[in-house]
Amino acid sequence: MNSGQFFKRMKFYYFPIFLLLLLLLLTSLRLHGSSVGIYNYFFYGSDKDPNLIYGHPRGIRSDEWLVLTPWTVSQVHNDFKPESSIYLAGQNFLFSDVPTKHWSTIFKPQNLVFLILPVEYAFSFKWWFKGFLLIFSLYLIFMLITNENYFISIMGSIAAFFTPTIQWWYSTFAPETISFAALALYFFIQAVQKMAKKERWGLNLFLFSYFAICFGFIFYPPFQIPSGLTILTIGGLYLLLVSKKHSIKPMLVPILGALSVIIFTGMLFYIQNKDPIYKITNTSYPGKRFSLGKDASFLPKVIYGFYNLQLLYDRNIVPPILGNQSEASSFSPTSLLLLPLLGIVIASSTKRNSPEKLLTAGCAAIPVLLFVWGIFGLPQFLAKALLLQYVPPSRSIPYLAVMNIVGCVYFLTASKYVDQSQKLDILRIVSIIYVFLFVLAIGIHLREKYPQYIYNPLKILVISSANAVLAGALAFRKEKTAMGMLLLLSFISSAQVNPIYRGLSPLQNSEVISELPARKNDVVFASYYPWLTNYLAANGFRVLNGTYYFPNVDFWHSFDPNGDYLHIYNRYAHIFLTHTNDPDQITISLMQQDVVQIEISPCNKKLEEIGVNHFLSNFPLENVSCLNEKSVIRLPNTTLYIYENPSVIYK
User: Fold this and answer.
1) CA 68 to CA 97: how far, in whole Å?
2) Three-state secondary structure readout of 557-603
3) Domain regions of the chain by residue span
4) DSSP string covering 502-528, please?
5) Which of 13, 65, 148, 581 lies 20 to 30 angstroms, CA to CA, from 281?
6) Reported pTM
7) Residue 457 CA: distances (Å) to CA of 191, 313, 320, 447, 622
């Protein structure tokens, strides 16, 4: 390798190195985007939060601040064991995105750092590592698509990171699912390329196997299946194309060997965890949740995505059909509107038999399939064969958002091989006008039907014009304008979704914790204040209720001896307690798909039998002769009451 080739190769790594340094800097400052500051609001109201650097906590992101973050911090007190004894009914964290000391954590790189660093630094690292991995993985994919166009690859990968639906769903598995799928696909293609050229391929095939296993260990089919179908489609088509120029027989043995390693690892995990897998797959939710496709909210969520900017403002009332802010989040689907033009561009390619045509068809196949699934549904046999019955259409939107960016990148790349003609120029101009009028019509429709969501006609005109500029830049292959506008639209629609916060102090508030009893194994809490159940667990207190990834049916059966409520509590659920004056009454009800409410008195014999001896509430408990009031914690925005049942000893 001469010096010119060396520096060209080094240029490839400049952007990833910059991302890595930024990741380390943010980690060292303990900064992250969690909405954990919501606890500060619970305690102190609107008083300025000294650790809030930018933005504000999002109450709607409760799956993060109420569940995942407290679960993660609770593991410090559980020595990161897969099964947590902090939750009285038992909690198995192997299937969640929570750090554990288990061999499968090797394939959850975002969680490995918790076994090395203090929790605040590890949490910060994980938060930004998810973004680093997404940007890096798509950078690699875009470098392949564009034949190493650095500008398009860098801008496109950053635009994907700032896509609204990615930011609103950032704390979920969505970023990792796409990242691991992209990395597995990239290293598979690299391995096949090197085998075809008879170069060293071992490292690439190893990395393909590793990231494919990482992808498999996400354990969230609604996100995994669209990306998995894409890996199979593109990987299979690429292998087919290579087979036309090279013999693939020598490649089959190493490829089958890699697939065997992936299957063996999955089977080993399954054999070791058959019981929890059986329990999860047989829960009422999500185990028995099957989608029929044809979701009335799917198409509005996609096409209203042009106006995702409005979701940033809590005062705006989200159209009811879209659900809440997170559920409503989407993307600006400009490249999807240009699909007909892209098809004509590819068909007009000067490379008449180019592989790009087949790969383009493969890239478009799964998004088109998902649109058909979401809008019209599919025959049951086909939905089962493709596993789409496990994919509620709205859960495919993060995948479609990233494929929209891929479409923009592909559009710029494919246009290089098109003969310039007046007919195509006319089609391009028509497409630009079509995009402008379409986005404008959506804005006018929203203004007329949901004026409390968007009313300003100037804003509608600006958003329509910006998308028309993006469409024009894509159509006429103006790379800098196109990628600049794509990044701008993504950034302004999502930059304020998550706050910038320092540390985890609200979750470990010393003023509250100092008033609670000393953490001992014989102290067991039940909380009548639902927002602080997992908070107690995060501080090492053993708790009855909280959020359970899947239920211990035998445990909850003691509250329901006849099994009348099994269909209610046999699910992933937040367990809320409500107070009743009747010490013998137990009523279990389903408040929403993932919220189970148990109406029970603190003096109920069942609570005594299982050893619950402390109670937390944000209101005085009445008719509780079995309890002693232990302390009252008066804070600016709330008052917490701590009670003890001195006759109960947990064993």
Assistant:
1) 8
2) HCCCCCCCCHHHHCECEEEEEECCCCCCCEEEEEEECCEEEEEECCC
3) 3-32+102-494, 508-644
4) ESSGGGG-HHHHTTSPP--TT-EEEES
5) 65
6) 0.95
7) 52, 17, 21, 8, 54
